[in-house]
């Protein structure tokens, strides 16, 4: 973390925390049931670790963006989303999927929310992300088509082959 923060400072790159479930072997791509208090504490702990390195270098924390399965669960489960958002430092924006429980929790708790779209992640027919445990790289032309569809028609081709609306 120290080296990454120093390099970001050197290059003028903004730093954000990317907290996730404590699933080292599964790289945060497996759901772990945790109580609300545990989730909040986990976020405070993980963000706090990065914040220590940022403070040492005089670099501000720019945003928080949940990782892997935690991100997906936060999109559909308001209680999990609210517990995670409660651990985000005051005034720090949360990056997430628009129109989801994550955005609602951020709004309810007064945390700035920055909507994002995904260039290389599939969507289900209900507009949720499909987190692949064994992610494979996308071809450039597939990424271009996926982004183009989102920007031009506010839709994606879902995993069932049908077009579904997404907020952009």
UniProtKB/TrEMBL annotation:
This is Lactam utilization protein lamB. One of its GO terms (biological process) is carbohydrate metabolic process. It comes from the Eukaryota. Signal peptide: none annotated. Coiled coil: none annotated. It comes from Lithohypha guttulata.
């Amino acid at each position: 973390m120290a080296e990454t923060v120093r390099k970001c400072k050197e290059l003028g790159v903004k730093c954000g925390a990317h907290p996730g479930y404590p699933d080292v072997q599964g790289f945060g791509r497996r759901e772990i049931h945790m109580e609300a208090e545990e989730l909040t504490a986990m976020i405070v702990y993980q963000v706090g670790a990065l914040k220590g390195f940022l403070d040492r270098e005089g670099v501000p924390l720019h945003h928080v963006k949940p990782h892997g399965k935690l991100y997906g669960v936060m999109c559909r489960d308001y209680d999990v989303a609210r517990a995670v958002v409660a651990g985000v430092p005051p005034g720090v924006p949360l990056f997430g999927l628009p129109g989801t429980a994550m955005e609602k929790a951020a709004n309810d708790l007064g945390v700035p929310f920055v909507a994002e779209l995904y260039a290389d992640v599939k969507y289900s027919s209900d507009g949720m992300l499909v987190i692949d445990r064994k992610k494979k790289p996308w071809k450039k032309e597939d990424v271009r088509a996926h982004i183009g569809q989102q920007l031009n028609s506010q839709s994606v081709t879902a995993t069932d082959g049908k077009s579904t609306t997404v907020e952009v």
